[in-house]
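$ run holo --ligand "magnesium ion" --emit tokens
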Amino acid sequence: MFLMSGIDTPEQAGTVATSILAAIMRPIVLARHEVMVTPSIGIAIYPSDGEDFETLFKNADLAMYFAKRQGPGTFSFFKSSMNANALKRLTMEGKLSGAIAGNELSLRFQPQFALDTGLIVGMEALLRWTNLELGQVPPLDFIPVAEETGMILPIGEWVLRAACVQAKAWHDEGLSNLRIAVNVSGLQLAQRSFPGLVAAVLRDTGLPANTLELEITESVIMANEDWTKQVLGELKAIGVQISIDDFGTGYSSLGRLRDFPIDRLKIDGSFIRRVQNNGEDRVIAATIIAMAKTLKLEVVAEGVEDLAQLLFLQEEYCTLVQGYFLSPPLTAAESGQLLRRLARDFEGTRTERLRRVHG
Ligand code: C2E
Ligand code: MG
Ligand code: MG
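-- output --
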């Protein structure tokens, strides 16, 4: 931190920032390699940007994040127009980079039930981020930021490893066929090294490949069809399963999916929630299920929230259901308890088992 006193105009601070940047950005030789540090500087001016140290420091910090975004080796003045939303995002970006090292990430697991037996056949791993200052940040808020900044790569790898370690622990307890589903972002899939990473994680954790399922959203699959076909082919060769997440939101036709090596289709919760409205929405959901079955795909209904939806899905011979009605996402410990309880109650009828899930 630099404190400049006795400047007459903000421009003088800008001039000093420029010379600092130039001095730091000179290449240096480290172990015979030429390296360059790329600094970013944020500037806050007393008293217009803050009247006490804390405010000035915070605003200079925010200006620094803006500078960072503009590219390496730049400086930025704090502006009050850096509105609340942008600030929130920038603060998030700064804090997210320390989330793995700070042990701030954790997983929840949401059970997927087979409708014909009432048993849990899979768990979807869902990422949670709890930061000391920001509190619990919803995935829908921080995952887009992680994708934009590329931080989804280390974070996604962390999720994959943690989920496989947990699934392996459940297998070792005797719940051996349990499948673990992991959400994969488009940026991860775009890495040449992704199939190799998946194979390495399976090797390291000892989890059988066919019990790992990768969830890829419909829009990512359709964004670059040739590339996805190739990567999905490589992933299938490793032995993992592939499901399409949020199906129905990307306006692609089921027919085009025929060309992709896919095992399962997850109907987006928004369709499931509308089946009560009768009429068209019911027909749409029923048609997706029927067509998926023709393509020999299993169908998972996401976001099942009540009994009426469950009964509808049963009538239409949907394969799997997932949603708050049967279970919210649980901690690993809670999941273990539920899995053990249901395994004990295996003797009961399907209806009894589904009913018992409620406690
Ligand atoms: P998703 O993969 O479609 O996950 C389903 C979301 O629906 C989860 O939200 C889950 O908690 C929520 N949900 C489950 N049952 C119900 C229900 O009955 N009603 C309603 N209204 N919602 C239900 P969550 O955990 O907030 O995650 C949101 C999204 O964030 C996920 O959608 C996924 O796209 C993304 N996400 C979560 N974890 C990861 C991750 O590890 N990697 C990546 N790339 N994305 C992730
Ligand atoms: Mg998902
Ligand atoms: Mg989904």
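-- notes --
DSSP finds 15 helices and 13 strands in the chain.
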